[in-house]
Specification:
Distance between the termini: 62 Å
Number of strands: 14
Strand order of the largest sheet: 11-12-7-13-14
CATH superfamily of the largest domain: Ribosomal protein L6
CATH class of the largest domain: Alpha Beta
Largest sheet: 5 strands, antiparallel
Number of helices: 3
Helix content: 10-25%
Number of domains: 2
Shape: elongated
Length: 192
């Protein structure tokens, strides 16, 4: 008679989770476990390598599975599925972050030259603060608003966070001095 552990192994031995891709989106996996997704907006790649997790592309389905499902593998599979959803959303819709420039006494000026973002006159500082970002991400300045957009969620979010951190003030009380650049809209959340 089989024990409870052997029965559990048989039940959980082949669990596959699949995601359906929309029309116009294609994907392929290399031997190094790099998943590349192509769509109307462009192409995005991500390394998804874990020893016991298998990723396959069959037609319009991306299948993520494992031979022996434990809690650890289950967590990794659901993390990979979230990454795959972000890749598909990026090549079909894209991601956009909105930032707002806020100042009270000293007018902050922002400018963009190529891939270099510069903030001048933050709290009357003489030395400008600069940030260099990736070519994959598009940054636009419209009056007191900054729009950061791209097809890779991680790179786009990192550029938006870098711009926000560029105006970080540590030596003054943030409840009183509220000058800076702040993220107001993310792809999944609006703060205002």
């Amino acid at each position: 008679m089989a024990s409870k552990q052997e029965k559990a192994k048989k039940v959980w031995s082949t669990l596959y989770l699949d995601e359906e891709m929309p029309q116009g989106v294609s994907a392929h996996v290399t031997e190094e476990s790099v998943l590349t997704v192509k769509g109307p907006k462009g192409e995005v790649s991500k390394l998804l390598r874990y020893p016991k997790i298998n990723i396959k592309v069959e037609g319009q389905k991306i299948i993520v599975g494992t031979d022996k499902l434990t809690q650890n593998e289950k967590k990794i599979i659901f993390t990979y599925l979230a990454h795959i959803r972000n890749l598909i959303k990026g090549v079909t819709e894209g991601f956009e972050y909105r930032l707002v420039v806020v100042y009270a006494k000293f007018p902050i000026s922002v400018e963009l030259k190529g891939q270099v973002f510069t903030v001048k006159n933050l709290l009357g500082e003489k030395v400008p603060r600069t940030c260099i970002f990736s070519k994959d991400v598009k940054v636009e300045i419209k009056a007191k608003e900054i729009f950061v957009s791209g097809i890779d969620k991680e790179k786009t979010g990192q550029v938006a966070a870098s711009i926000e951190q560029l105006t970080r003030i540590t030596h003054l009380d943030r409840r009183v001095i509220q000058d800076g650049i702040f993220i107001t809209n993310k792809p999944h959340r609006a703060y205002i």
